[in-house]
Amino acid sequence: MPTQNDEPLNERSQQLLKLLVEHYIRDGQPIGSRTLSRDLGLNLSAATIRNVMADLEELGFVTSPHTSAGRVPTDKGYRFFVDTLLKYQPLDDEKIAAIQSRFGEHTADHKALVAAASQMLSSVTRLAGVVTLPRQSHSALSQIEFVPLSDNRVLAIMVVNGREVQNRIVQLDRNYSADELRRASNYLNQEFGGKELSAVREHLLNQLKETRESLNQVMLDAIHLAQHVVMPSPATGRMEYVIAGETNLMSFAELSNVEKLRRLFEAFTQQRDILHLLDLSLKADGVQIFIGQESGYTILDDCSVVTAPYTLDQEVVGVLGVIGPTRMAYERIIPIVDITAKLLGSALNSRA
To answer: Is the pTM of this model over 0.70?
Structure first.
C-alpha cells in the first residue's frame, strides 16, 4: 500500500483540498477559486483561496490542466484525500442484506459465486468489478480413477480435498486396457492418497529421474498417466479473474478516448498486468487503493483500483475489487468493496 504524504498541510489548506476533490469527483470539471468561494460557501476571500490553491499546486496536490483557470487533483492530492481527509459512508443494513441475498441465489459452484460478486460490484458501483477465482491453499489428492475411451484416450477423474471433482480427457501414445488403468489408479491412490498435490508432483518428478529398470510396469504406467493429470499445465497456478462492467468506464470523459479504451480493454483481456496488481493485494491486509501511477502500469495511469482480499477456511484465497477513474467516489466505493469481500468469504465458507 502506498504510504501517506508527509508534507504538513494546515487546516485551511486541508479544508480547501477536501472541497476541491469532492467537487471535482462530483462534477468532473476543473475547480476555480471563485467556484470554491461562491458555490461552496467558504468564508474566505477569493484572493486567499487563490493563494492557498497556488501553495497546493506547488506542493503537487493539484494541477492546472491546459490553459484552464481551474485546478484538478493530482494522484498525490487524491492519496492525501483518501488517507487523511476521507469520511466513509458505511453501508446500511438494507444494502448489506441486498448484497448478501445476491450470493444466496447461487449453489456451491465457486465460479458462480465469483461471477455474481463481479457482476454485483459492477452494478452497485457503476464501475468495472473484478474478482479472482479462489486459489486452493491446500489441494490434497483424495482419489484418482481412469476410464478408457476410444482412440488412445482416457478420462481421468481426480477428487481433490474430498469434494472437488476434476475431469480431464488425456490423449496417450498407446492404448491402455481397463485392467492397466485400474492397477495404475490403485497404485496412485495407495501411494499418494491424502497427500498435497505439490508433494505428489515433486515425488513424481523424482521418480521420473530414476532409471526405468528400478520401476516395475505398473509404476511406469501410473507415473505416465499421472504426468498428464497431476502435473500443472503452463497456465495452472496463476490466478484467473472474472470481470464485469468494463463498458461502464466509457461513461467517464477522462477514459472515453477510443485508443485509451482499446488499450485498457486489451489489458483486461490479457490479464497479466491486472493479475500482478491483484496478486499484490493477496499479500496485504484489508482494503488496498492504487491511485493512478501508483499501480506501476501506464495503462492504469488515469484509473484507480480498490481491492480487498477474501478468505476461505480463514485463509486468503482471492481478491476482489473495482477499477474506475481516479475521479471515483472513494467514500462510497471503499466500504462496498470491503463488505463484499467479507460477504463473498462467508458465502464460500458456508458452501465448503
So the answer is: yes
